[in-house]
Amino acid sequence: xxxxxxxxxxxxxxxxxxxxxxxxxxxxxxxxxxxxxxxxxxxxxxxxxxxxxxxxxxxxxxxxxxxxxxxxxxxxxxxxxxxxxxxxxxxxxxxxxxxxxxxxxxxxxxxxxxxxx
Amino acid sequence: xxxxxxxxxxxxxxxxxxxxxxxxxxxxxxxxxxxxxxxxxxxxxxxxxxxxxxxxxxxxxxxxxxxxxxxxxxxxxxxxxxxxxxxxxxxxxxxxxxxxxxxxxxxxxxxxxx
Lengths: 117, 114
Fold this sequence. Notes:
heterodimer; A: mainly beta; seven-stranded mixed sheet; B: mainly beta; six-stranded mixed sheet
């Protein structure tokens, strides 16, 4: 089946640091990738939709300058949390939808646990 | 706009008992419906999906769900629970009015007692 690899799985860093998270579709091409944030014992909150070769579409309330998204190829999207602060600590999950169509399910990475000290 | 409601944030069943996780959706157009499972500190794994065709959908690990348009429901069932089924389950919907973005329900934590 389709595999999405997310790296790193866990990051612990100091306040003010910028952190980059990678999301790769390993055996399929994804024109669209999604970035979610999940708070403890909560559902997934869509942060942005990442489109290959164009600017990401951010959801309302998500700071574009804080969460930089780049989708440089059909198999790679990156999320950079700039100047991270403790309130940015969370579980970040990416997903990718196969180019096969809008009725295709999203395939999820295993998530990145970000802890800002 | 589409939305998903999962009734019950926690469900507890005994091993071997029927599992029923409820999901109701709101959509003004034919929806695509999904159930995902999440184990601790992991991403989501697709259990099953409904797009068109047969309304009873079978998924992995013995789970199935039935799309009932009249009830706007997509409940997840499994005849006999196993300890390994303990996890968080998310119902999700997408449709063309939302640009096919997937909207997730709040999730239901399934506990399985020995």
